[in-house]
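Narrative summary of target 7.
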Amino acid sequence: MFNIIYNNQKPENKDTTLVNEMVRFREVRLIGNDGAQFGLMSSREAQKIATDEGYDLVCVAPAAKPPVCKLMDYSKYRYEQQRKAREAKKHQVIVEVKEIRMTAVIDTHDFETKLRNGNKFLSKGDKVKVSIRLPYRFVQALVDQGKNVLQSFADGCAEHGDIESAITHEGRYISMVLGSKKK
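Modeled conformation, tokenized:
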């Protein structure tokens, strides 16, 4: 018998910014808190200047030649970065792609139900992928009928959405993508 232990905790976001004693370069370019240039110096000298002035030594460009360090209050800087990230996340819009599947020979009531759902999805701001599955042995007349069904679906959703990708025929599927109209 095995005892399995699961760690269900979220992974910690490790901060990889080099701060204070973690800055270990032979030579760094130091910038003051007010933007004044201190010039090139060893990281120990830069650390001494940072402690004398009461700031943290933060490496802002470790890939530069030589690396660039700045004197700043690191906790305040980190708080500002987190606040900007929260604001950006608050204003982003997540668009889902909803799929509606039909057949080329669909009854009018079924078509109206699918059309109503498509309009509902588009009015919420989602994208709608409408696809028609053809049988294994299909004839060209069935493909034409499927394209007509898709075109009438697009016409029915015209007030809520526009066609983003035109009607395509790939293997057994005929599909198109509708996107919601911009307000």
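The first strand starts at residue 28 and ends at 31.
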